[in-house]
Specification:
This protein has 211 residues and is α/β, with parallel strands linked by helices. Helix content is 30%, strand content 30%. The strands form 2 sheets. Strands 2, 3, 6, 7, 8, 9, 10 and 11 form an 8-stranded mixed beta sheet that branches. It has a 3-stranded mixed beta sheet with strand order 1-5-4, with helices on one face.
């Protein structure tokens, strides 16, 4: 009998063992992406997102749904994801369950948000997978779940990018076969970090290759 396991119940060690993944800590995203400075207008809009987030966060726990509305949505809009005709965003409600066979068990889960680039002929490239948690959850708790979802795309492309966030903290992940690179977290409330966050999102949206 096949045992069904929810991806959210797996530990990081279990995921690393299942997919034979090593971890490498990274501090410099610019080694892997071409980052461009923001305009003054973009900096001002990041400050507005920071202010809105801070107002809600100061009133108590921010739910996962509110994280998507208050922080993720405006950041993705500012990064140009909605305006780019070749990019397609899918939310949890419109994403089929991810299912990975693992011996006598099946790992299942549903991604919060995925950004794909349409390449034509019904072929698409996964640009970014996002796992969101509420503000009271340590952002790293979403990492095992995110890695499972990212792993499911490696059959069709050499590299997959992911992001796990609780609204205030943002951690980017770059997955390749046998290795995931974990980057230093960025804090939306810290001046400089929020701006770098948007720079990274813009750079990812412009990537046209899977490596």
């Amino acid at each position: 009998m096949v045992n069904v396991v929810n991806a959210s119940s797996l530990t990081l060690r279990e995921v690393q063992q299942r997919f034979q993944l090593d971890c490498q800590l990274e501090t410099d995203l610019s080694r892997f992406l071409t980052l461009s400075p923001l305009t003054e207008a973009q900096v001002a809009r990041v400050a507005g997102i920071r202010q809105s987030w801070g107002r809600y966060y100061s009133n108590g726990r921010v739910t996962e749904g509110e994280v998507k509305i208050l922080a993720l949505s405006p950041l993705l809009i500012e990064a140009g994801y909605l305006a780019a005709p070749e990019l397609r965003l899918s939310l949890e409600e419109w994403i089929n369950e991810v299912e990975i066979e693992d011996g006598d068990r099946v790992i299942r889960g549903r991604m919060d948000l995925i950004v794909c680039r349409d390449l034509g002929d019904r072929v698409s490239l996964c640009v970014l997978i996002i796992e969101a948690k509420n503000s009271a959850v340590n952002v790293m708790e979403g990492l095992p779940q995110l890695l499972v979802y990212m792993q499911s795309f490696l059959e069709g492309q050499g590299v997959v990018w992911g992001l796990v966030t609780n609204g205030g903290d943002y951690v980017f992940v770059r997955l390749e076969r046998g290795l995931f690179r974990l980057f230093r977290g960025l804090g939306l409330m810290f001046e400089g970090d929020g701006e770098r966050l948007l720079e990274v999102l813009i750079a990812l949206g412009r990537l046209e290759e899977s490596c």
